[in-house]
Amino acid sequence: MTKPAQGHGAGMSSAKGRADALSFVACLVILAASAFGRENDWVRAAQGKTRLGRELGAMQTRGYYEALIDANRDADPDAPPPGWVPFGASGIAQPTEDYIHLRLRPNADLVWNGARFRTNSKGYRTPEVALPKPHHVYRIVFFGSSNTMGHGVGDDEAYPRLMEPWLDGATDPATRVEVVNLSVSGDSPSRRLSRMVDEAAGYQPDWILCDATVLDPALEEMHLEAIVRAEPRPEIPPVLDYVRQALDRCGASPTDPPDVLRGKLQGQAESILQGGYRGWAEFAQSAGVPMTIVMIPRADAKLASPAVEKVMRSAVLANGLDVIDLSHAFQSLSVDEFRVSPWDKHPSVKGHRAIFEAFREAMLVRGKLPGLELLR
Description:
With 376 residues, the chain is of the alpha/beta class. The chain has 14 helices and 13 strands. The strands form 5 sheets. A 5-stranded parallel sheet has the order 6-5-7-8-9. A two-stranded antiparallel ribbon has the order 1-2.
């Protein structure tokens, strides 16, 4: 009677031995794959790095961002009312053949979907700027995307316009504070960096602000997809070597089917986002100008994106960047309150006011701007 038991025990021992051997071999395979191919999908899954990809795949931003460069596309799957015009068909945007790929038309003055939209002679939604800068002016130059540009609201309702009179009134009366808004719809982190390098110094800024949201990787993905498919492909500026390297690494090709190309770009999302933050920090250091990252909430929905947030905060810490975190600004508001509409997923007038109020509270805690005290 003992023989079967011994045989069964021996079988269990043998099975356990085989399982241990298989586990050991699997570990060796994963370690070898890590050594020879850091971007291997199996390794990334084994290391728990697929959460970022899942979050990126779930971001429903594609329709709007495609409409930035293709006016014939619907801006959103939610049907807008008759007469509503997407950004790409508004006449405000001008496609370009360089890496930036999109600029605002200079001296625009129109009513777009019920909101007044004006640009200055440089093609930015900000008042004319005196150059050289007058000696009594403290100038803040703001880089960002559609939420900071004020997509869907009037000229004076966007939060950067709300910041200016408050900061001017809260500082030395002998100094005039200006907020120059160089934000453009669709500007991904790499496009903000490219504009920053090309244009920031010319405005003689005392402080540079740059917005950041969890939707930035989706913006970058959409922009790079357009760049890869452009004929001829625009030259990538030297300051964006990290973008060129990422495209080479993933083998992005204009002949890739859409899902394949998106998958390749999403696989590089973390390194591209980190490269953008590193570029911002290096530019600020080389220019000798204080820079602060302004983290604003997503306005398309009330959704958490912990994997993207983790990458953003890690990049901030790694590059020693100063941050004003306003990502909580919509906490007490419903989606219908902070969003323009289901078909225009940008901050409403109330949403911009909430972002400004969160900024004002953060500045009161700080008590000063770089080189300029707030009056108590």
